[in-house]
Specification:
Blueprint (H helix, E strand, L loop, with lengths): L20 E6 L4 H11 L5 E4 L11 H13 L4 E6 L3 H7 L7 E3 L3 H9 L5 E5 L5 H13 L6 H9 L3
Parallel strand pairs: 1-2, 1-3, 3-5, 4-5
This protein binds D-ribose.
């Protein structure tokens, strides 16, 4: 006997990893982690759009975060990865865009829940607080976990209504 509480409403909208295009943006605190992730992911995903920055010279994260957010909103990227020292500034910036649900992800489980419950489309990584290995685990989970829908769909619809 099924009822609304034991039916898992999985959308099954996830593309296979090798069909996903990701966008990645970062400030000076995140450029080395970005390079590591791009190297690890380049043969696993379809394409990676790099929005910079590409050096350790001090920059302002919104200059790189907004172009990433626009590309994700337009559907040019399936998902985004946004990296700064804490993940806070760059995630705050992408979340100014109506179509973006950016989640600060510091553990793989947080990344998983940000997809399952929040349908997050940009993962914010705190480069100064997590290892490269953890960042890669987070990204892998984020890119391969589907949104659960159901009650969570109603909740994320309400995010833009106030
Ligand atoms: C840069 O020093 C730092 O402020 C930035 O990477 C980020 O942590 C801001 O939220």
């Amino acid at each position: 006997m099924c009822n609304q509480y034991n039916i898992k409403n999985v959308f099954n909208t996830m593309k296979p990893l090798n069909e996903i295009t990701i966008g990645i943006a970062n400030d000076h605190a995140g450029f080395e982690m970005k390079n590591f992730l791009m190297e690890q992911l380049k043969n696993k995903v379809k394409d990676i759009l790099n929005f910079g920055t590409n050096t350790g010279e001090s920059v302002d994260y919104p200059d790189f975060a907004h172009p990433l957010a626009i590309a994700v909103e337009k559907g040019e990227c399936d998902f985004g990865i946004a990296i700064c020292g804490t993940a806070n500034g760059i995630t705050m910036t992408v979340n100014k865009h109506q179509g973006i649900r950016g989640a600060v992800c510091w553990e793989p489980e947080i990344a998983k829940l940000s997809r399952e419950h929040n349908n997050a489309n940009i993962a914010g990584l705190p480069a100064r607080f997590i290892s490269y290995e953890k960042a890669l685990e987070i990204v892998k989970v984020f890119l391969t976990t589907d949104f659960e829908g159901g009650r969570h769909a109603r909740r994320i619809e309400k995010i833009n209504i106030f």
